[in-house]
Amino acid sequence: MKDADAFNLAFESSCDDFSCAVLYKNGKDVKILSNVIYSQDFVHGIYGGVVPELASRNHIKASLPALRIAIDKAGIKLENVELISATSGPGLVGSLLIGLMEAKTISFALNIPIVKINHIEGHIFSPFLETAERFPFIALVISGGHTHIYIVKSHGDIRLIGRTRDDACGELFDKVSNYLGFGYPGGKIIDVLAEKGDKEAFKFPLPMFHSRNLDMSFSGLKTAVISAIDSLGGPGKIKKETACDILASVREAVAAVLYKKTAAACRMYGIDTVAVSGGVSANSRIRSLFGDYGKNDGLRIIFPSVSLSTDNAAIIGYAGFFKTPVDPVKNREEFLNINADSSWEL
Known about the structure:
This protein has about 350 residues and is α/β, with parallel strands linked by helices.
């Protein structure tokens, strides 16, 4: 589908958000006609994290309304769709199956070619929905479940070169926010409160900051932050001003580690373009630090807009335009074998 004009119906349901989008490709130009996202933050917030069973149940409720709204907003009919793109991994297997099976059902019923997309691949290319592609580039994908660095030479040439050895940076934010009693999801909460604090107030460790490889670790930083909270009396006994200082300081430490590793990857491979994506890429300090430091280092830093940073179907649809689709009739066996893969790695 690389050069063909097409309406692309995309599905994303890898975790706790269900999304359905319609994109149109005209030559090299891709336009988002609709991008409907059903968030479940209100469902999982009281539990301090995503409950897989609740996520899949709520996806069932959201799946058909999301499809109808996406089609209506795009101003087309299902019969106009020429390509279907759907996330098939990684993620929560129950959640993945809801969106993927809806996509396969439409594909089979209307004989529309389908492509399965790796969720991380959608994030990697998400900035290019709004700016021209430029290869090769270093991709930093940061979210509640991933902190990965890739070298990307083309749509079909993506190689993992660095990753967290334990907690993802987004997971760190969630756990610290929960521990302080501010709730879930922690990324948005920390970003707001950190703006009120002093990022120099606490000197938290920068894990693996000086190591020569591109891997990262955030469990030690998490332990250091929790220890600092406990030393001040523990959750509920710390003044809000102090809590904001803690959050500003941990946000600064995370941003510093992420930039250090990303810049090291650029030097290692002689690449000057960086695409930062994933839910945590919406963090305002990460954006400003990468922008400032990147400019000083001669790097071109690209972020997707905040609305495209979180899980959504538009980024899945964009990646789908560059894949070879499976015809549900001509390639029946291959079509039937498309399934959810909760641990699918690029």
